[in-house]
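for the record, two folds in this file. i put them one after another cuz i was lazy. first one right below, seq on top, structure tokens after. the second one comes after a little note so u can tell where it starts
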Amino acid sequence: MSLKIEKDHQRFRQIVKGKIREDLRKFLTRGELLGKEGKNIISIPVRGIDTPHFRYGDNNDGGVGAGDGQVGDSVDGGDGDKGPGGTNPGNHMLEVEVSLDELADILGEELRLPKIKPKGQHQITSEKDRYSGIRTSGPESLRHFKRTFRSALRRQLMAGAYDPNNPIIIPHRSDRRYRSWKTVLKPQSNAVIVYMMDVSGSMGDEQKELVRLEAFWIDAWLRRNYDGIESRYIVHDVRAAEVNRQTFFHIREDGGTKISSAFKLCRSLLETHYSPDEWNAYIFHFSDGDNSSESDSRECCRMLKESLLPRVNLFGYCQVASAYGSGNFINVIHEQLDGLESVITSRVNSKDDIYDSLKTFFSTGK
């Protein structure tokens, strides 16, 4: 019975995943999903799915309980508003909980993203307990039932106490067997993501919301591909500063833009804390493309080519549309860094472009 229930539950989960996959482009643009994120799961409203449930008899008997009642009376006994029933169907939504790993897998399957191949040596290790044998003592939670039963059966057979017509096996204390373990070092692929965002006056709330959505899905995909992820956040106008995640997505700034300030801080961060032999590094810069000068844009490209690109798996530049920005920085990147595989750019003019932007960033499998 429990096996059948498990099969039914798995089938239900597959139906849920199918519905999410059908509407994935729409889910990618739903900012409220981020607010429903838990430690390891996220709540997603899915249309057109009913929770499996038992149904008894038919519902044509009418009534809401005992006693006299008239059409239009309030169920709770209060003064209810009387009126005709509606004629439009309701929008039935079911909120299902999906793990972030499941969500990332759906994202990868739908966008046909290849699994990322970590670069460099696996020099970072983590300790992991591996069950490797059997011993005669240990905690009851690790008791090995089959080995215990086998030992008791062997003892009774050798003693001539086993009755095939009454096959009762009673383990003694000496029959008990327990799993043993040893601590092993497990190679671990780690990655650091450095998010940089222009917070000058030309970047408004609409642009920051696009950044917030795209960064969430970037984070989900990379965490699915690596054992350990560290995220660092840099904001800049004419000066750059490292901030925490909450500040990164909610800071309000004003003033001009000097993109090279963020690139210098990023370079210092990587050189100080993240050896390229041990860390896979990803840099994502979000801006409306407005910079203080053409020469500063060229300086950014020089720093990328000489200092940053040799250390990173990928540099992704996402340019969001703004009515106030010149949008020229992406053109300078194309001019100065054309042909470099580790440099990928995308334009996001609205939430609908996030789907294609993610596919552009990770289709190379870097």
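(here's the note) second protein begins now
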Amino acid sequence: MERRHFFRLGLQKALQTVVNGVESGVEQRSAGWFRPPYAQREMAFLLSCTRCDRCIQACPHGVLFALPLRVGVRAAATPAMDLLTHGCHLCSDWPCVQVCEPSALQRPAVETGAGPPLPRLAQVTIDPGLCLPYQGPECGACGSVCPIPGAIHWAGPRPTIVASLCIGCALCREACVTTPKAVKVQTLRREPEADSPPPA
């Protein structure tokens, strides 16, 4: 191996290590918020998003909001979902995605005649210590709003979330009648305290 090629290869590996480290750090910092449907990976999302607020304005259910400056200048003013208060209604026409001109939000390409898969938004679980049916009273509020068949499994009156089917829209959390909520919503990147308020 020529000396010049050896050093070029070493430089490329070093640069790739730096890039990987930066991307990993960006992903870790983003674990405190929920990105909108069909968002690119965090690094690509931050590079693409123009902070135009069009997706926030397009959401008919008020689920999206702009992250505050205290999350850091890289992510400040970019859109996130308030899944601790509102559920994503999985709009059939995905208005938030349609208005995203830089494609920071982008539905995956699919074969003709097949619809794109639903986005996975969050991880949802039910706390048996807070859920009413585990204490005795019947409820069923979460089951009445779940849009994904089979995502909530019922053992008699007691619900559990089927992780392989649930996409994390959090409509069940919004419908939950307990205080604090028995339905816990966590980001896909880590497990933050679900009942902490979203950035405002």
